[in-house]
Amino acid sequence: MDTKKKVFIVHWWWGNSTEPWFVRLKNSLEQMDFEVKIFDMPNTDEPEIDTRVNFLKNNISDIDKNTYLVWQSVWCQTILRYLSTLDNDIKLWWVAFVAGWFDLIPGSCEWEEIDIAKPWIETPIDLDKAKTHTDNFFAIFSDDDYYVSLDNEKIFREKLNAKTIIETWKGHYSQEDNVIEIPVLLKRFKK
């Protein structure tokens, strides 16, 4: 008997589960018989590493070869940090990153935000351990993202062996950027 395919989705730093592209992706995937959960992360204004990783530990269960993860912005780091805490025998199908970053564009954030981002930028991630859980990383970037430089695309490609795509005029993939769907991401699920 086949296990139902599960998708877990997490929003960007200040976002929430009602972002239009999340809702549309969820609806489309449910029509394809996926089980979809969109999380509202705690303390979105001041994200902390341990709080985020512990949230995932408490809210994601039964990861297996039918599990897909879709993460945006700083939460891309959260899932990598989370994956690096799992037992080596846990495998999932793939992880998609949207506007993920290891570093931010200088001057793109206010001083308070820089202080919040600093631990995310400076605390190492065991990428080799994270990679033991899947061979399928997929990362999407925009050429006009106001937080994330395309240097991050190279990091995802080289350090995670991620398949990467650079889109045009999507900003940080938020509703403020008029992004209401990400067809390239849905197409990836259809494969």
Overview of the molecule:
There is one protein chain. The protein has 191 residues and is an alpha/beta fold. It has helices spanning 20-31, 49-59, 75-83, 111-122, 127-131, 151-160, 183-190; strands at residues 6-10, 35-39, 67-72, 94-98, 137-142, 163-167. A 6-stranded parallel beta sheet has the order 2-1-3-4-5-6, sandwiched between helices.
How would you briefly describe this protein structure?
35% of the residues lie in helices and 17% in strands. By secondary structure, the protein is of the alpha/beta class.
Low-confidence stretches: none
Strand order of the largest sheet: 2-1-3-4-5-6
Order of helices and strands: EHEHEHEHHEHEH
What would the principal axes of the Cα set say about the shape? globular
What does the average pLDDT come to?
A: 91
Structural class, by secondary structure, is alpha/beta
- How is the biggest beta sheet arranged? 6 strands, parallel
Helical fraction: 25-40%
- The total count of helices amounts to 7
- Using the CA coordinates, give the radius of gyration: 15 Å
Number of strands: 6
> Which quaternary structure do these chains form?
single chain
Write the layout of secondary structure elements.
Blueprint: E1 6-10, H1 20-31, E2 35-39, H2 49-59, E3 67-72, H3 75-83, E4 94-98, H4 111-122, H5 127-131, E5 137-142, H6 151-160, E6 163-167, H7 183-190
Parallel strand pairs: 1-2, 1-3, 3-4, 4-5, 5-6
